[in-house]
Specification:
Elements (H helix, E strand, L loop, with lengths): L1 H14 L17 H28 L3 H4 L3 H13 L8 H18 L8 H32 L2
Helix pairs in contact: 1-2, 1-6, 2-6, 4-5, 5-6
Amino acid sequence: MKKMLLAAGLVASVLFAGCAGVQVNPVSLPATPAVQSVLTAAQKFHNAVTAACNVLMPTIEPLTPLFATQPGFVAFNADLSLACAANFAIDLASVNNLIGSSISAAQAVVPNVSALDKTQQVVVVAALGAFKGALQNALAAYVAAAPVATQ
């Protein structure tokens, strides 16, 4: 029961991760409304992805050795590394890969990891699902805001 509550708390944390974040000072560019709109959208996207990574990573890092050799986690681990790299620009392609296939592939493999009990499997699958939802929300907000700057 305690682990299920932890899983529920984790899911809620990831879903609301986009509400938190550190503001990044924008690059010195002309202060046109279009440029400011793109910078604001990019900052919000970066903050939301970083917050989602900061919630997911402590949950799955202790289990990383178990996932290293699992086929479904190979692409996930590569995309996660690029999307969650500290102090780097967000890799949009990796975020798209995570949303599109890597997370689902990793979720499908979790029940096959014999070292995890059923509760741990539920926690990992829920954490990955919440992470995917947070990334989808962040990407949708970014895509909705960024085109305004290109008009």
